[in-house]
Amino acid sequence: MSDEFQPGEAVALALDSAVGAALVGEHGQTLALGPDRAAPMIADLERSVGPRWVWWSKPTAATLVAADIRPARCWDLDTVHRILAGGWRAGPGRVWALGSGLDPSDLPAAPTDDLFSAADTADSDEPIRSDGYLSPMWIDGAWRADLDHLHRWAELGLDAYRWQIEALTGLDDRPHAAATARSESAAELLCAELELDGLPVDVAEAERIIASFIGPRPADAAEERHRAAERDHLVLEHLDGASDQGIDLRNPGNVKSLLRRVGIEVDDTRAWRLERLRGEHPIIDALLRWRRAERIATTFGYRWLDQHVGVDHRLRGTWSSSDGAAGRMTATAGLHNLPAELRPAIVAEPGHVFIRADLGQIEPRILAAVSGDAALAAATQESDMYATVATELGVTRDIAKVAVLGAMYGQTTGHGAAALRRLDATYPIAMRYLTDAAHDAEGGHDLRTRGGRLVRMSAAGDLNGDERGARSRAAARGRYGRNAMVQGAAAEFFKTWAAVVRARAADANIVLCLHDELLVHARHEIGDDMASIVTDAVQEAAYRWSGSDTADAVHFVADTTILRRWSDAK
Predict the structure, then answer these.
(1) What Rg, from alpha-carbon coordinates, does the chain have?
(2) Which domain CATH number covers 513?
(3) Is this model's pTM higher than 0.90 or not?
(4) Tally of domains within the chain
(5) Confidence class of residue 3 from pLDDT cuts 50, 70 and 90?
(6) Contact 21, 33 (CB under 8 A)
(7) Cβ-based neighbours of 277, under 8 Å, separated by 6 or more
(8) Residues 164 and 220 placed together within one structural domain of the fold
(9) Domain assignment of residue 543, given as a range
(10) Has residue 197 been placed in a domain?
(11) How many other C-beta atoms are found inside a 10 Å radius of the C-beta of residue 306?
(12) CA distance 448 to 326
């Protein structure tokens, strides 16, 4: 037995805090550690050697982070499986099936606790069934039985890692796929850290903001209902004495009827449509104010605060490095859709600051990179590339922006439609890239992002004889496909950037990843240094994500500020 692991070497890790840990290196080294030695030895190996830890899924990362071990390098088998197979569904059974060339739709079911499952439990010590699939009992936790089982589980993880490396290398037209797998794995590890660290919240300020919308904390459910009725009345009183009985402001159909009674006809009651009607009648302003208050009351009120903000005044939710579609990061507990009204309550702890950075005009810059359009790449050299594009098209900046975004989202109508035709002539390579992606998606052909993530576009549901419906679904797939190729690549770039910042920010923590925005929490005295690190990391991310040629041709930018409150960002 040898524990002489090498820097950067893949070391598969199976870890259970009650049993211990088993480590298996790619060159045959093994190490078995009891529960008392596991965390100290893993921490020592991380400091002295720095291997690339290989684990099945985020719970292992979470166990390490809870033990104050934050690896520099990792490989998350679930995360890489989602790149190769597309979608969200993963787990050891699917990872193993894909690597073994087995059909994941035939995964064996976990045994039920009845007489008929006796045969399934007879060979529970064997992790691989006679048909080649992983044993459901091992997937469900039999690997935790003892150190021997942990060792076998780590061996299987190393096998899966080798298969995934081979599969990524086999994506000949996606040379950066392995690099994507590494950065995506780092992003999943970052998710475990985000879940533990949380986002600092000034609870007193949050309660003050909530109270400004819905009043102080209600004493009981009856008072809560009474307050809701009072908020409703502030809208319904604009009916000028007409009966408001039976009107439910939470029902869009009722709201349309309500508006009709004051002479306003709308196709729907979406907020943006009502915003356009401000001034038509006092009830519009009242309704919009009611909606803001109702959202606070039902989603971001006192219950939300009590449920998701801990005694340490940190907001915590569940994080994922991929949404299962094009690969954007997601979070629960309102971390990704916190109302602007509550942002003043996101405050750095005493003696600390936030470094907030936002990638500028990331989607068109990504389009220039993935399409290889030299003319569009030239436009990225300016901090405001929309202004450059506007000059090239001979239109205003606003129209140029609408046209570029419309091309990426498949919107061909509106006041940017004429400029779209000029885009085709001015940036033909970029526009062809989007059109090709749309045509492939319309035909039900799966796509792969620049980093190798599979985006499924199956058209199986179109074989139903409904020609008009099939055309509509194909068109929707086309719009989604063209956007997924840009959004997916942008998500890969963002996570590469986040991984670089995480690696370079030794004395600070990322506390929020929001679309194209990073929020880093650092001590006040290192705020300026951290701001430079975050900004410089954009260029390092560009090289890691795309290689030197593309990184030199396409310029990526970030707007970085140091602030105490999140709401101070412009």
Answers:
(1) 27
(2) 3.30.70.370
(3) yes
(4) 4
(5) low
(6) yes
(7) 264, 266, 284
(8) no
(9) 315-361+492-568
(10) no
(11) 10
(12) 9
